[in-house]
Amino acid sequence: MGKVFKANVNDTFDFEIKNDEILNLDTVKTSDSQYHILQDNKSFKVEIKEANFNTKSYQVKVNNNLYSINIFNDLDILIKAMGFAIGSTKHVNSIKAPMPGLILEISVSVGQKVKEDEPLLILEAMKMENSITSPRDGIIKSISVNKTDAVEKNQLLIEFE
């Protein structure tokens, strides 16, 4: 028995695909990102719109329908089951003051979606302006400080949902 891959499509459907099934597909490459596939006497026009090999995520257009696909092999599944999934270290739910200082600017509001490394606020400490950025993608749940507030080290500044 060959390798088995698990695929999740549009965060809704889960499939198991055997390596033998992939190798036995009747596939013709028509361009760098397009393929023509025959399966069970049905014709499919397939185009790979986006591919991220690091996260094993793909945007694939099949007969003019767009699908988001994530592919997992046995090792990916084992790592996730053991709790060592990639990105698990990025599960930060709050931002605390790294040092005592003064809040000069707050660049976000409650309910706002933020991306990783997006500036959240500016903290002045020891006559230096320190930009505090988001450690992960997320939504701002609460902001515990206001502009011009003096803060102590480890004081809660921002919480994520």
How many helices? The count is 2
Number of strand segments: 15
Q: Helical percent range?
A: under 10%
Q: How do the helices and strands follow one another from N- to C-terminus?
A: EEHEEEEEHEEEEEEEE
Q: How many separate structural domains?
A: 2
Strand arrangement within the widest β-sheet reads: 2-1-7-6-5-4-3
- Mean pLDDT equals 88
Structural class category: mainly beta
C-alpha-based Rg, rounded:
23 Å
Give the overall form: elongated
Q: Summarize the biggest pleated sheet.
A: 7 strands, antiparallel
Uncertain segments of ≥5 residues (pLDDT<50)? none
Measured distance between first and last alpha carbons: 44 Å
The proportion of residues in beta strands is over 45%
How would you characterize this protein structure?
The chain is built from two helices and 15 strands. The protein is mainly beta and 161 residues long. The chain folds into two domains: 4-81, no CATH class; 90-160, OB fold (Dihydrolipoamide Acetyltransferase, E2P), CATH 2.40.50.100. A hairpin with a 4-residue loop joins β3 (26-29) and β4 (34-39). The longest helix is centred in the middle third of the chain and has 8 residues, at 74-81. The chain is elongated. The mean pLDDT is 88.
